[in-house]
Amino acid sequence: MLITKSISNSTVFTDVSRTINIVGITMNSDASTFDLFYRISYTKNGQDVTNLFNTQVPEWHISNDQLMILRDENFNAIPNTEFVEFKDELGIVINEKERYMTMPSFDYIKMMILDKNIPLRTLIEAYIMEEDKDGRFNF
């Protein structure tokens, strides 16, 4: 495995701990795609119970078809200084995606690796934690 990182416990089986294992990384600048291939291991009371869970995981595909929030050196989201909150009649913010600075995802990842010299491991581990907070691994 290339990278192994503990993530939050299963949301359904809260006593089951999980570990994400990055087993492959593909970056294609011609297609502007960055793909992470991963598995999730499940453990309960020190015993591997992965065989009790679905081993199929959703793809983790990054391209310029999506926007990524820009981060500072501490991996905090960079606020959009021009953001003005707009709410609908129920008081729900309808432009939340504009709260932080963004750029096309592949271009951002490529810039972080090639121009900012962020180690790939550091970048992937930070995004594992961020994606875990956002529920990517709760399926």
What are the defining features of this structure?
alpha+beta, 2 helices, 18% helix
Helix content estimate? 10-25%
Please tell me the total number of domains. Answer: 1
Q: What is the global morphology?
A: globular
Low-confidence stretches: none
Strand content: 25-35%
Order of helices and strands: EEEEEEEHH
Over all CA atoms, what is the radius of gyration? 17 Å
Mean pLDDT over all positions = 95
Largest sheet: 5 strands, antiparallel
Number of helices: 2
Structural class: alpha+beta
Distance between the termini: 22 Å
For the secondary structure, the number of strands is 7
Please tell me about this protein's structure:
With 139 residues, the protein is α+β, with helices and mostly antiparallel strands. The strands form two sheets. Strands 1, 2, 3, 4 and 5 form a five-stranded antiparallel sheet that branches. A two-stranded antiparallel ribbon has the order 6-7. It contains two helices and seven strands. It is globular and about 50 Å long. A hairpin with a 2-residue loop joins strand 3 and strand 4 (47-48). The relative contact order is 0.19.
Brief rundown of the structure:
It contains two helices and seven strands; from the N terminus they run E-E-E-E-E-E-E-H-H.
